[in-house]
Amino acid sequence: MEKLMIGNCPNPIWFVLLLCFLSSLLFVLFDYLALSGGKQNGATFILNHFANDGTSTSSNYSVQSLNNQQTQETVSNTKFVKNLYSCSGRYIYIHDLPSQFNKELLMNCNSLMKWINMCQYLSDLGLGPLVDKNESVILKRGWFVTNQFMLEVIFHNRMMQYQCLTNDSSLASAIYVPFYAGLDVGRYLWGFNVSVRDANSLALVQWLADKPEWKRMWGRDHFLVGGRVAWDFRRQTDDDSDWGSKLMLLPESKNMTLLSIESSNADNDFAIPYPTYFHPSKDRQIISWQKKMRRTKRQYLFSFAGAPRPNLSNSIRSELIDQCHSSPTCNFLGCYNGANKCEDPINVMKAFQSSVFCLQPPGDSFTRRSTFDSIVAGCIPVFFHKDSAYSQYLWHLPKNYTKYSVMIPLNDVKDRKVCVNETLLRVPKNDVLAMREEVIKLIPSIVYGDPRSRLETLEDAFDIAVKGVLERVETARREMEESKLLNKKPSFK
Ligand SMILES: *[C@@H]1O[C@H](CO)[C@@H](O)[C@H](O)[C@H]1NC(C)=O
Ligand SMILES: *[C@@H]1O[C@H](CO)[C@@H](O)[C@H](O)[C@H]1NC(C)=O
Ligand SMILES: *[C@@H]1O[C@H](CO)[C@@H](O)[C@H](O)[C@H]1NC(C)=O
Ligand SMILES: *[C@@H]1O[C@H](CO)[C@@H](O)[C@H](O)[C@H]1NC(C)=O
Ligand SMILES: *[C@@H]1O[C@H](CO)[C@@H](O)[C@H](O)[C@H]1NC(C)=O
Ligand SMILES: *[C@@H]1O[C@H](CO)[C@@H](O)[C@H](O)[C@H]1NC(C)=O
Ligand SMILES: *[C@@H]1O[C@H](CO)[C@@H](O)[C@H](O)[C@H]1NC(C)=O
Ligand SMILES: *[C@@H]1O[C@H](CO)[C@@H](O)[C@H](O)[C@H]1NC(C)=O
Questions:
Q1: Residue 302 is inside which H or E element, if any?
Q2: Buried b (16+ CB within 10 A) or exposed e, 461-470
Q3: 352, 381, 368, 369: which is closest to 293 by C-alpha?
Q4: Which of 106, 263, 418, 458 could lock 444 by a disulfide, CB 3.0 to 4.6 Å apart?
Q5: What are 383-435's pLDDT values in tens digits?
Q6: Whose CA is nearest to atom 7 of ligand 2?
């Protein structure tokens, strides 16, 4: 009964299709020669020129000093290019929080998580240990064993490099609160009562609300980053058996913006990409990586890296694993406890680079870090639920999701109405090529650059997130000013 559909995809011409598909693949892998990635002098000059920006509060720069050549070359390769012209409207002030909210957490890194010692992942400003192996599936530089929960540390360190920092909060458009919210609650998710879990959150909002910066916009220009899913900060009751902290349900937090790896449906919650293993420090590393991914030969139709969720009744993972095992065109990377192959960047990149499609079913939550690993590898993500990406990464992924991904409704898999291999085989060759090109173009905008340097012209996931926050705060500011004007009328009577 269980395996009713397995081996029984009702399509008599699958073999022909398969042959067509595989042979066409061999012929269509051509290289794009347009981007040399070699000459970076213009951009480097701009970088040095603008690098002083952070320590000064004057904001206008001459446009003439730009070398358009490089900028244009890069524009053709990606959608997002930095605003190199001016800091006006982009200044950010970093709150200097007491160390209990960030540094102390790192100092006690061996007690951050119940099952893992996180200290190993703190090296290189939160990127984790450098992958120093001569392996053809990665580049010589820019690869790290990055843990998926380190986003808040990486983001903080990237922010220290932001071009438009100011020490004068009155000039700032937005205020960054470098609280390591996920690492903080991560210590207490299992076996601690709610007062322990909430203690630092309560202390934080108290500290913030006492600062002069708070009253300017009642916190609506403040933002923070959580390296865990937003539900971990939205505990609905004060019952000890309920999950997470209530950080984001405190009155002050409701006025702030939270960026996290998976958002809830609250309107001050925004999802930004999980960190991947790739942290480039130069535009040209990204450009040569993109070239490499265009050239890569992909011998499998699809891959799945993950583990089943036997205890989640709605999970389709076991079904997908069965389908993968019985399909010779599928590559399965099992992620089971113990020596976890899935946390080795070489293994993950090998699997995804050798596949045309990468399955991204929900796990414990809707989203997965694997989605971003697959984009980095030029592997077209296959989603089973809109909340795994489409309703989440609004700033970073294209609105028209058919451009870069395939959607197979979860219920169709559950009800065994579809065989994944056949659905994917039916995608026309030209669509596959167009989608892959779109995925490869997304790479710069979903990776976090190495915080020890700065990409010259390309915008990374950090830049796009900051832009999103600044626009949001600007809208809030306009709204507040408008309502102030409106409210004034009655007070003049
Ligand atoms: C597709 O998957 C089914 C099992 O789900 C398998 O029986 C069939 O042989 C596969 N077809 C191809 C073309 O791989
Ligand atoms: C802010 O002040 C600190 C300490 O005085 C200094 O190290 C830093 O460079 C200043 N940053 C900016 C953006 O002015
Ligand atoms: C920058 O300078 C240009 C030309 O001098 C001027 O038009 C523009 O308003 C200035 N922008 C800012 C933000 O000061
Ligand atoms: C890296 O591997 C390639 C072949 O895989 C080899 O030609 C090259 O010499 C190696 N480089 C180093 C530094 O080991
Ligand atoms: C919560 O747990 C801490 C220690 O883990 C304990 O000191 C405290 O009394 C507990 N609070 C409540 C309300 O149970
Ligand atoms: C949140 O903002 C509103 C105005 O938008 C303000 O009235 C309220 O007091 C703020 N809440 C806190 C806790 O500051
Ligand atoms: C599933 O639940 C059983 C019983 O509650 C438990 O023993 C087992 O560890 C769980 N398995 C997983 C993978 O969580
Ligand atoms: C979305 O993208 C697909 C593929 O590129 C295209 O055919 C379709 O017209 C687009 N839809 C919209 C609404 O732009």
A1: strand 300-306
A2: bbbbbbbbbb
A3: 352
A4: 458
A5: 999 999 999 999 999 999 999 999 999 999 999 999 999 999 999 999 999 99
A6: 55
Question: Does residue 373 contact residue 304 with C-beta atoms inside 8 Å?
Answer: no
Positive or negative, the CA dihedral 265, 268, 273, 275 is negative
- Of residues 266, 269, 442, the one with CA closest to residue 371: 442
Structure tokens at 440: 């490869």
450 is written with which tokens?
């190495």
Atom nearest to 240 CA in ligand 5: 14
Alpha-carbon distance of 459 to 449, in angstroms, equals 9
Task: Give the whole-angstrom CA distance, residue 368 versus residue 146.
Answer: 14
Q: Residue 350 in 3-state DSSP?
A: helix
166 ligand 2 Cβ < 6 A: yes
80 Cβ contact partners less than 8 Å away, ≥ 6 residues apart: 444, 445, 458, 459, 463, 464
Strand pairing category for 174-176 and 222-229 = parallel
Q: What pLDDT does 338 receive? A: 58
Tokens of 92: 């950010």
Q: Using alpha carbons, list the distances in angstroms from residue 184 to 81, 230, 290.
A: 34, 13, 36
* Residues 459, 82 contacting (CB under 8 angstroms): yes
Which residue segments constitute the domains of the chain, with CATH numbers given? 14-30+281-446 (3.40.50), 92-275+459-484 (no CATH)
User: Which tokens hold the place of 448?
Assistant: 């976090």
Is 123 a residue whose pLDDT tops 90? Answer: yes
pLDDT value of position 339: 57
Q: Is 353 in a helix, a strand, or coil? A: helix
**CA 408 – CA 175 distance, rounded (Å):** 40
Give one word for 201, left, alpha or beta, with left for phi > 0 and alpha for psi -120 to 50.
Answer: alpha
Task: For residue 194, give the ligand 5 atom closest to its CA.
Answer: 1
